[in-house]
Amino acid sequence: MDMKRHAAALLGAVLSSAWVPGSHAFAGVELGAVVENAELPALGGGKAPLLGWARASVFVFFRPKQEHSLETLKQLARLEKELAGKPVHFSAVVSGAWPAGDVQESVAASGIRMPVLLDQGDALYGKLGVRVHPVVGIADEKWRLVAYQPFEKINQAEVLRARIRRALGEIDDADMAKVLEPARATMPGDDRRFVAKRDLNLGRKFLERKAYQKALDSARKAQERDPSFAAARTLAGQALTGMGRCAEAAAEFDAALALDPQDAAAAEGKKGCSR
Question: Looking at the predicted structure, is the pLDDT value of residue 186 above 80?
Answer without folding.
Answer: no
